[in-house]
Amino acid sequence: MQMNIQLPDLIASLNSGFRYLPTTFILSFVPLSAGLVFGTLIALVQVFKVPVLRKIFAVFVSIYSGIPSVVALLIYNLLYITQFNKIAAFFGSSLTVREVSPIYVALFTFSLSSIVLMSETIRGALLSIDKGQFEAGYSVGLTTRQILRRIVLPQVVPVILPPLTNHVVGSIKNTSIVMTIGVMDVLNGAIVPAETTYRFLEGYIASALIYWAVNALLEFLLRRLETHTGKFRNTECTDSATEYKND
Amino acid sequence: MIDFFSWQRLADNFPKLLIYLPVTFGIVGIAAAAGILLGMLIAVVCIRRVPVLNQICTVFISFMRGTPMLVQMLVAYYGIPLLLELLFGVDSRRWPKIVFVYITFALNQGAFLSELLRSSILAIPQGQTEAGLSVGLTPFRTFRRIVMPQAARIALPGLSLDVVGLFQETSLVYMVGVIDVLGRAQTIAAQTGHVLECYILIAVFFVVISLLLRSAFSGFEEKLTYGSREPAAEDADEHSAA
Amino acid sequence: MIEVKNIKKSFGKLRVLHDVSIKVGTGDVVVILGPSGSGKTTLLRCINFLEKADAGSLTIGEKTVDFAKCSKKDILEIRRRTAFVFQNYNLFNNKTALENVMEGLVAARGMPRNIARERAEHELEKVGLTDRLDYYPCRLSGGQQQRVGIARAVALDPDVILFDEPTSALDPELVGETLEVIKKVAKEGRTMIVVTHEMSFAEDVADNVVFMDGGYIVEEGTPQKIFTHPEQERTKQFLRRILPQSEYTI
Predict the structure, then answer these.
(1) Is 50 exceeded by the pLDDT of residue C244?
(2) For chain C, which has fewer Cβ within 10 Å, the N-terminal or C-terminal residue?
(3) Looking at residue A53, which CATH number applies to its domain?
(4) pLDDT above 70 coverage of chain C, percent
(5) Which residues of C touch A (CB under 8 A)?
(6) Neighbours of chain B (3+ CB pairs under 8 A)
(7) What are the boundaries of each domain within chain B?
(8) Domain end call among A181, A208, A229
(9) Backbone phi, then psi, for C171, in 5-degree steps?
(10) Are the CB atoms for A21 and A214 separated by under 8 Å?
(11) At which of A181, A199, A228 does a domain end?
(12) Which one is predicted more confidently, B3 or A88?
């Protein structure tokens, strides 16, 4: 058990971890994109009450969101490792499990849980739209598509950004569990030097610093975006209360 | 394929895993309790902008929210003994691993819950505090008897979401060597070579717990808000009759 | 000329409109009165298809539509000939006052932006909001929002403007101003159907007053006739509750 912190080791770990940042980004942004696309589809199905699908999705979402990422990852990885060779042979490929990176298992796992989580967020945002906006749109003669594009969507975006920010940050943090299946991400990368020097604490602190910096930056940018797209909203009103009174 | 999954093994492993669930409940319980206390303290510090503490809290919250739980546990496991040795001369190397997990989870929850509690408290109109003070209550009693109960009701939905998430996060603790359901599954894997049934059982455990928790919380929320929603509906009727 | 013939509407098992017919001449102002649940708002909302009536027909100008058998194209066309002023304004939250008034012109009628802008500025000037053109709804008071709503409706140059309790959601002090704006619109010669509780407005401006209850038209006539010599018992009951005693004689 080490009893001090050495700066050189910390820096070595920072460098080592940093090199694997692209992997972490891939592991979080690919699932996020999948989540946005398919999550929106599922949310639309539920909001527009498509007959059979709606129930199926509702049940699936409420059950799947109860499974922790780690457990899902372990299960999919197990299936992957044991079944890959058989399935590859079935398709006439000579690939073996050893040749293909485990990152695909991680991408699959994270994408699935991202889709499930996003669908709930988007569903909530769609339901929060005031029906009156639709009615006003219809009454001036707009079509549904026009209303969605010109009136509703611009109002949904700033509503969705805070939970979306949480999803993005959470997604990045979640990628650290790929340590179990041997994918080289920031966490695994940061402790590479420690394998020879046994300075694990510096490694873990280095990875913490990298995650912290990345997430702080992302939160800052997304908050800016939220302010920009939400210019028409209440946050401005509380400042200009005096103007309001001069009616 | 036949030897891949077996119902027999599923049944055998069920009791073996079940007895480790209390470990998970223990972590959640301690984390939630300590988290609420700590979160309350931090929330008050932030709301009142206590000079130095406020900045420390902001950094603390940013760190806890910006770093993965797994990393936090690893840093705690390796770093807390160092800290305790340096600051208090306490030798914590022989402490059971789960203590470090308790500490990490408590700190983590404290940070997240402080945000939830802070926004709930701020949502209570200033008028409530003013009314409490004007009937002669001390600031502390006003807070405890008037503001906090109302804030608690507002915080409830976020709290239920948090607890459900907490359960899911406990699945990480086996990675630092704590024996919970997942840790036991790994030892079964080492002993017997068959672990799929264990993982599936664990997945089912978590799904069931999560569903039970969510329905319990939403039932609780309904009971709590039932009283305060009714008058609003009556007011609306009076307006439309005019 | 607007004519609704034999309109019927139910919500599930509840019959809200029982075969109602109403005729509005061009340039007329018709005020519909009645207690809550009388079907007056539903009638209005059926005219521009915010609710879909079960049966009956609607004629606006030379276009006639059967409620039971109308196509999406029919609905769109009717909506482009009518305008609606909502009880709770329903301004587009993500657009400024000016953009709100322009929206229907530019996106639904394909008007060039500069022409739409001129017309929008003109209408907003008529309702007294020239200095609020670039304000978002959240920064406007209720009265101001409703005036934008009225400008939005008038700018569309519709065959009829439908008003659904336009002042019910306003603070009492603002009701008068808003009614003045609506009266100005009436004096311009617009065809209007107004659901309201404001009796003085009805007396000043209405050409015809219609009293509805329980999904039927109970009585209709000029304001003078209805307010001073109502014939039906239900009309008398309603007026007794609403008007001060001295206003009418049995």
Answers:
(1) yes
(2) C
(3) 1.10.3720.10
(4) 97
(5) 48-50, 76, 79-80, 82-84, 86, 88, 90-95, 103-104, 107-109, 136-141, 143-144, 152, 156, 174
(6) A, C
(7) 7-241
(8) A181
(9) -60, 145
(10) yes
(11) A181
(12) A88
Write the class of the CATH domain B7-241: mainly alpha
Residue/partner pairs of B57-61 with CB below 8 Å, 24 or more apart: B57/B114, B60/B111, B61/B111, B61/B114, B61/B115
In a mutational test of the B interface, the residue from A14, A173, A202 whose CB has the highest number of chain B CBs within 10 Å is: A173
Residues in chain C: 250
Tell me the shortest Cα–Cα distance from C201 to chain A, in angstroms. Answer: 23
Q: Would you say the pTM of this structure is higher than 0.80?
A: no
Which structural domain, as residue segments, surrounds residue A87? 25-181
Model confidence at B238: pLDDT above 60: no
Q: What confidence tens digit (pLDDT) does each residue in B188-210 have? A: 888 888 888 889 999 999 999 99
Gap from C73 CA to chain A (nearest CA, Å): 10
Please give the residue that has the higher pLDDT: either C244 or C190. C190
Q: Label residue B94 exposed, middle or buried (CB < 10 Å: 0-12, 13-18, 19+).
A: exposed
CA gap C212, C34 in Å, rounded: 5
Instruction: Give per-residue pLDDT as tens, A39-67.
Output: 988 988 888 888 888 899 999 999 999 99
Q: Determine the pLDDT at residue B235.
A: 31
**Nearest beta carbon to residue C138 from set A133, A141, A233:** A233
pLDDT of the residue at B125: 82
Instruction: Give yes or no: residues A133 and A238 share one domain.
Output: no
Give how many domains chain A has, as a whole number.
Answer: 2
Nearest in space to A165 (alpha carbons), one of A106, A108, A230:
A230
Complex ipTM: 0.82
Could you give the strand order of the β-sheet that contains C29-33, starting from the edge strand earlier in sequence? C82-85, C160-164, C192-195, C29-33, C208-213, C216-221
Query: How many Å lie between the alpha carbon of A137 and the closest alpha carbon of chain C?
Result: 8
Q: Do B65 and A169 touch (CB under 8 A)?
A: yes
Average pLDDT (A228-241) is 60
> Which pLDDT value is given to residue A3?
67
CA nearest to A238 within chain C: C139
Residue C129 has pLDDT above 80, yes or no: yes
Do A161 and A48 share a domain, yes or no? Answer: yes
